[in-house]
Structure to design on (370 residues):
């Protein structure tokens, strides 16, 4: 977070300056209206008012809008779980994602699987599950660092012929830190040298103890290549989702996270968005990270044109003035003018922050030379 004065912080938190000053006094800090606050104080105060400030996160209009729009419990409806697949290199994350999709998406569905999309939805027993194809841990970490908790359940893939490896541990630590429930998919069980018991044994060291051994971690043996265990894995995902009681309010302006984005030659900036709250509609004025625009067209995960996307739905969107980044937040505004104003403001602040960072680096370099 950058520095803010007391008055600026008050505005961001939609509180009065005297409320902020009172809180500061409670922390033993005497401050006036125009005093600049350090990061720790900003975080403490924001926290006191129920707003979490994560590292590098700027409290700005996007967050404030979200803060103001607390949901009425009556508006909340059940939503699909959002699942990320993580694990060590070559343990079969991509193959498993493909396998689930192949098993579950029928050819009769118009359009079929026509293009790559960083997220998709399948149906099991009439219930939907959303899978995110995050390109490795980096994206997951970025999303988390920005406070964008997009994942409800993590599938930890461990190859039964290879066992627990460094990135397995990294992945499970990420999931634990984010307090996301973990389901272990022991993959490649079709292989001759597969040893699922060894995987269970090794994971107990990291407090992932199978139910059969008195723990509470769900383990499912799968084979991403022949589809074995995929139905059971989906059932377990639905079971965990039910326990989590995942809900969202579909009847407000949409808000969510960028899964991936790129510049398409013909269509311009194209972003895959995960709607987390509200319903996104064609024509909506929108701010996405440091970009903005109006939703021109939306495409579903199977390449169908859609006009609306509700909570937990991934959708490909065009109509932005630039390419946002994976992990960026998006928010729909009531009118285009406001979206433009906020989008431009964010872009300017982002540039300023970058410039500050660059000049700081060069100063450090200078001192190093002396
Ligand atoms: P990275 O994205 O590089 O981290 O790898 P990944 O985890 O996505 O692994 P990927 O799906 O690319 O699979 C790695 C290799 O393992 C490929 O050659 C797959 O065909 C193979 N593989 C994946 N799952 C299985 C499985 O269930 N059984 C067998 N026999 N091979 C598998
Ligand atoms: Mg892969």
């Amino acid at each position: 977070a950058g520095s803010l004065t007391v008055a600026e912080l008050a505005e961001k938190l939609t509180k009065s300056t005297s409320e902020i000053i009172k809180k500061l006094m409670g922390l033993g800090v005497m401050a006036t209206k125009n005093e600049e606050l350090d990061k720790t104080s900003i975080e403490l105060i924001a926290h006191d008012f129920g707003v979490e400030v994560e590292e590098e996160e700027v409290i700005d209009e996007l967050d404030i809008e979200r803060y103001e729009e607390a949901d009425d419990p009556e508006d909340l409806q059940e939503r699909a779980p959002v699942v990320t697949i993580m694990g060590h290199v070559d343990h079969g994350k991509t193959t498993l994602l493909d396998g689930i999709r192949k098993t579950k998406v029928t050819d009769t569905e118009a359009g079929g699987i026509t293009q790559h999309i960083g997220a998709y939805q399948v149906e099991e027993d009439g219930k939907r599950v959303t899978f995110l194809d995050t390109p490795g841990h980096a994206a997951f970490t970025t999303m988390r660092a920005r406070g964008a908790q997009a994942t409800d359940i993590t599938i930890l893939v461990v190859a039964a012929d290879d066992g627990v490896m460094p990135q397995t541990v990294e992945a499970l630590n990420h999931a634990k830190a984010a307090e996301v429930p973990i389901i272990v998919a022991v993959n490649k069980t079709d292989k001759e040298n597969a040893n699922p018991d060894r995987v269970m044994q090794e994971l107990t060291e990291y407090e992932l103890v199978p139910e059969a051994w008195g723990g509470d971690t769900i383990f499912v043996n799968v084979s991403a290549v022949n589809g074995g265990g995929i139905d059971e894995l989906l059932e377990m995902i639905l079971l965990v989702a039910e326990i989590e009681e995942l809900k969202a309010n579909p009847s407000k302006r949409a808000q969510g996270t960028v899964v991936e984005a790129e510049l398409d030659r013909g269509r311009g900036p194209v972003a895959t968005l995960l709607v987390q709250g509200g319903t996104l509609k064609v024509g909506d004025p929108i701010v996405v990270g440091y970009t903005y625009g109006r939703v021109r067209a939306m495409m579903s995960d199977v390449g169908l044109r859609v006009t609306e996307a509700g909570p937990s739905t991934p959708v490909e969107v065009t109509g932005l003035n630039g390419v946002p980044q994976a992990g960026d937040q998006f928010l729909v505004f009531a009118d285009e003018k406001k979206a433009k104003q906020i989008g431009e403001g964010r872009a300017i602040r982002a540039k300023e922050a970058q410039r500050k960072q660059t000049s700081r680096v060069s100063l450090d370099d200078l001192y190093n030379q002396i």
The two ends are 30 Å apart (CA to CA).
